[in-house]
Design a protein that fits this description.
2 helices; alpha+beta; eight-stranded antiparallel beta barrel; 8 strands; elongated; about 190 residues
């Protein structure tokens, strides 16, 4: 009996999770931890908003701001970015899933950004990023995700180009358009 109840719950969660990736739905959330593997340890916050233009394909925008002061230095490091992004979620038959309630995705971004240091090199210009991740649906509408992403920055300043590999940990809330419209009406 317990196996039957657990199986039915897993099936409902899996079907509902895929329903959240349908055309017309919204995705809102943030990367709450963004660990940089190159040029030191770093954490920041990157909010995201996207709209599903087709099933499993979302277009959106993200804004990032990080201010860090490495221990033992008087340097203050400020990173910023404003970029549109696109994300594609792979169907279960396209990639073998690790868990029943999750889905792999690929993400790309292109926008403007900067990496500025009060005591060192800085770059401001065009920021390009590409990465892959996994979203695990902890509820039918909330996904916990990990994203491994390379971001390159090309422009002017003391250095012409910089690049970093990031591991982003965050969450996304997936809203059907009808629920998003109702939430906006309640705010007015």
């Amino acid at each position: 009996m317990n196996k039957l109840v657990l199986g039915a719950a897993a099936l409902v969660l899996g079907v509902t999770a895929n329903a959240q990736l349908q055309q017309g739905n919204w995705m809102v959330g943030a990367q709450v931890a963004n660990v940089k593997f190159t040029n030191g340890f770093n954490m920041n916050l990157t909010p995201k908003l996207a709209y599903f233009v087709q099933d499993r394909w979302a277009l959106g925008a993200q804004v990032g701001l990080n201010v860090a002061s490495p221990e033992g230095t008087s340097d203050t490091q400020t990173d910023w970015s404003i970029a549109p992004f696109t994300r594609y979620y792979f169907a279960n038959n396209e990639i073998d899933n690790l868990l029943n309630n999750g889905v792999f995705f690929a993400e790309g971004s292109a926008g403007f950004g900067g990496n500025n240091s009060s005591a060192g090199d800085s770059t401001n210009g065009v920021e390009l990023g590409i990465g892959a991740g996994y979203a695990y649906f902890i509820t039918p509408s909330v996904g916990l995700e990990g994203l491994l992403k390379y971001q390159g920055l090309v422009g002017g300043g003391n250095t012409n180009a910089q690049g970093n590999l990031y591991l982003g940990i965050g969450f996304q809330i997936y809203l059907p358009s009808s629920k998003a419209k109702a939430a906006l009406r309640d705010q007015q």
